[in-house]
Amino acid sequence: MKKTSTGPVIIESLAEYHKLVGLPKPEHPLISVIEVKYSPDLPALPEDKLILNFYNIFLKRNISNALFYGQRYFDFSDGIMGFSLPKQVFTINTEADFTKISGWMILIHPDFLRKYDLSKRISSYGFFSYNLNEALHLSEKEERVIEQIMLNIRTEYQQPIDAFSQDVIVSHLEVLLNYSNRYYNRQFITRNSSEEDLIMRFELMIRNIFDQESVTHIPAVNEIADRLNVSPHYLSDMLRSLTGMSAQQHIHNLLIEKAKEILLTTRLSINETAYKLGFEYPQYFNRLFKTKTGQTPANFRKEISYN
């Protein structure tokens, strides 16, 4: 495949994307269903950043080291699903072997969903903000289900547009996203060895932060996720699926554990304890402690010491 170097490429419309990859114009200006397959006539693709200003849902197979998205290049062997929001950044490895690639892509311009409730709810599907290395690995049965829904969308997409076309397609999209949610939840459970390792590393990292002599700030989910090389949404969704608590709740619980230790084993004042744990204002520490334990730090120390 030939190389070009054109700097960051921003794709505003579906028609622009079709032109970039050598496809005919889309049959609808705001949504496109593309069967992914190799063509020797594929135009030279840009080596630099590629920014798509629309939603992208894809199912791909049999391609290695083709996309850099998130933390690293990713291999697609069996059925892999990925999701991206508008304005997310991809880098294409133009040296990758595309000859065996297959699958489907659905590109959705935000305006297509504008009048539907889905436009407000789509951000609640956290997997749109996952990194590519957190893609959805499908079983053969799951892949058949997903592919059939995509084929249903393509069938409707290829029909002449009428008053019901958009409603029907959006309904199919909602079904597709709900199945994807179900399968991601299954993945968190069935791939539990790697996820349990991630939980252990997450908790160890938080404990090490709070064990420092002086904590400058309470660690944010984004900060911890970055250190663990995962996306914040994936980290929270994985923890919530396996433990019932989000990443933020875990951080607060571990903070309270450390606070109890300090209150019972040192003579630091309540304010000094708050500052040691990274709180800028002690009243915020008092409020969180009472929310989590049902009593103030002072009452906790007094009650336990008395007993």
Helix/strand-derived class?
alpha+beta
Overall tally of domains: 2
Mean pLDDT: 83
CATH architectural label of the largest domain: Sandwich
Q: Could you list the spans in which at least 5 consecutive residues all have pLDDT below 50?
A: 1-5, 66-76
Gross morphology: elongated
Q: What is the tally of beta strands?
A: 12
What is the end-to-end distance? 75 Å
Radius of gyration, CA atoms, in whole angstroms:
24 Å
The helical percent reads 40-55%
CATH class of the largest domain: Mainly Beta
Report what the structure shows.
The strands form 3 sheets. The chain has a 5-stranded mixed beta sheet. Helix content is 48%, strand content 18%. The protein has helices at 14-20, 110-113, 118-121, 140-158, 165-190, 192-210, 221-228, 232-243, 247-265, 270-276, 282-293, 297-306, and strands at 3-4, 9-11, 31-37, 45-46, 49-52, 55-61, 63-68, 73-76, 80-84, 88-92, 102-108, 136-137. With 307 residues, it is of the alpha+beta class. Helix 4 packs antiparallel against helix 5. The protein has 12 helices and 12 strands. Strand 7 (63-68) and strand 8 form a beta hairpin. The protein is elongated. It has 2 domains: 3-190, Regulatory protein AraC (Jelly Rolls, Sandwich), CATH 2.60.120; 193-306, Orthogonal Bundle (Arc Repressor Mutant, subunit A).
Q: How are the SSEs ordered, and which strands pair?
A:
Layout: E1 3-4, E2 9-11, H1 14-20, E3 31-37, E4 45-46, E5 49-52, E6 55-61, E7 63-68, E8 73-76, E9 80-84, E10 88-92, E11 102-108, H2 110-113, H3 118-121, E12 136-137, H4 140-158, H5 165-190, H6 192-210, H7 221-228, H8 232-243, H9 247-265, H10 270-276, H11 282-293, H12 297-306
Parallel strand pairs: 1-4, 2-5
Antiparallel strand pairs: 3-11, 5-10, 6-9, 6-11, 7-8, 7-10, 9-12
Helix pairs in contact: 4-5, 6-9, 9-12, 10-11
